[in-house]
């Protein structure tokens, strides 16, 4: 992202949430803490997660830019549930 002629090197992440009903949600953001708060507390959280609160961050992966994060998000969404669970188990941010 370029602002005032200066390149902003902000981090972007793809993430997986485990919802209260045991379903998984995949999304992307440049601010994990703010986005997790939105998913759990605000109307600006995804419609899918609003009815499945609380949600818990179980996986995150840093990407170099928005193009990469969108590509990776699509790849993760196409995985089977079993493959997503294996990925979470191998690289979990929160062991549960």
Describe the structure.
- This protein has helices spanning 32-41, 47-50, 66-78, 81-91, and strands at residues 2-3, 6-7, 12-18, 24-29, 56-63.
- It has 96 residues and is α+β, with helices and mostly antiparallel strands.
- It has a 3-stranded antiparallel β-sheet with strand order 4-3-5, sandwiched between helices. It has a two-stranded antiparallel sheet with strand order 1-2.
- The model is unreliable at 1-7 (pLDDT under 50).
Count every beta strand, where a strand is a DSSP E run of 2 or more residues.
Answer: 5
Fill in the CATH topology: GIY-YIG endonuclease
Rg for CA atoms? 14 Å
Q: What's the SSE pattern? A: EEEEHHEHH
Main-sheet strand order equals 4-3-5
**Number of structurally distinct domains:** 1
In the CATH scheme, the class would be: Alpha Beta
Strand count, sense and barrel status of the largest sheet are:
3 strands, antiparallel
Structural class by helix and strand composition: alpha+beta
Helicity, in percent?
Answer: 25-40%
Taken from the alpha-carbon principal axes, the silhouette is globular
Distance between the termini: 35 Å
List the helices and strands and how they pair.
Layout: E1 2-3, E2 6-7, E3 12-18, E4 24-29, H1 32-41, H2 47-50, E5 56-63, H3 66-78, H4 81-91
Q: Summarize this, please?
A:
With 96 residues, the protein is an alpha+beta fold.
Could you name the key traits of this structure?
96 residues; GIY-YIG endonuclease; 40% helix; globular
């Amino acid at each position: 992202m370029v602002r005032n002629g200066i390149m902003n090197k902000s981090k972007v992440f793809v993430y997986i949430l485990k919802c209260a009903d045991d379903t998984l949600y995949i999304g992307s953001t440049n601010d994990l803490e703010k986005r997790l708060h939105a998913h759990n507390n605000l109307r600006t959280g995804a419609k899918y997660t609003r009815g499945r609160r609380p949600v818990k961050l179980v996986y995150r992966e840093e990407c170099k830019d928005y193009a990469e994060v969108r590509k990776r998000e699509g790849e993760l969404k196409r995985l089977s549930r079993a493959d997503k669970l294996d990925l979470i188990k191998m690289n979990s941010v929160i062991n549960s």
